[in-house]
Amino acid sequence: MGSVDDERLGARAARPVKPFVARAPLLALGAICLVIGVGAGLARLGWGVPAWAAQAAGLHAVLMIVGFFGTVIALERAVALGKWWGYIAPPALALAALAATQGAWPFAAAFAAAGAAALLVVAVVQAFQARALHGWVLAGGALSFAVGVALWASGAGLPPAIACWLAFFVFTISGERLELARVLRPAPAVRAWFVAAAALFAIGVIAVVLGIDPRWQWLGAGLVLLAVWLAVHDIARRTVRQKALTRYIAVCLLAGYFWLAVAGLLFASGLGLARAWDAALHALLVGFVLSMVFGHAPIIFPAVLRVKLPYTPWLYLPLALLHASLALRVAGVAAESLAARAWGGAGHAAAIALFIVTMAGNALRSRR
Fold this sequence. Notes:
By secondary structure, this protein is mostly helical. The protein contains 15 helices and no strands. 81% of the residues lie in helices and 0% in strands. The radius of gyration is 21 Å and the shape is globular. The N terminus is likely disordered.
């Protein structure tokens, strides 16, 4: 009996760890950053929030960009790579943001540097594997993220770091869409348009970092060109005519491209008013980036956690709330209405919460 039991224990020990057990804690770290980051954002808008969120009000951008988005994107890249060392980045980035909330700046800087470096290595390896333009665009996004982390950790100021982090999102998302656009066999002129738009945007980011005028105008012009390219040449223009999940994803994408163009126009305007900065940033980070998250989550989460997540039309409800609240926020900024801006921000938080509840309900129903 003893030898049989030993063999059974050995067999259990030899079994690979299930993806859900191994990856769920990493997503949980990102979710913690999301909760604190959303609370910090509400505190900045004047809403009453718990003390732990109010104390992190100054770290809203870091919690959302590095702690949440950075962790989730790094986890997705690690799963795609399939190597153990690819999983260094997700926990490091989440811990960097959480350490910052506790005032542990040396630990925050060290974790952020390690996470950004690991993500960059993953992106470069995948670029060599792909041997295509989209792979190097994705690598450029990872490089931008690493530069932004270095600027933030060195105390160089938040605007230059945010410019680099915006490049991280723009290059990551546009690179992935460029990869899928290959099925349409784009002409050389179409690819040249993409390269020119991306180059103009990159010049704008570099100008912001170096303090060279006109800074944000170049960045904004590049965003507008990229938004038009995506709206015209992305496969979403065709898939939006289909049904169920395919159409839902296409709607998320096309709505995101609209807000990317809005952000580009606001940046290109010169951002003469401080409130325009708020509208431009959230048009990109909420309207573009979060819309992409809403659209791809029903695909990414099942792939990462190996759980079934069937489509439901209820997903349109948080998506509609997200974009309606953003429209209210931008309108409030234009009208100098602090109340409209605050309610728009509260709508973002409600849309995120509703989306999570909808996804969790789908997962539970699929298990039953």
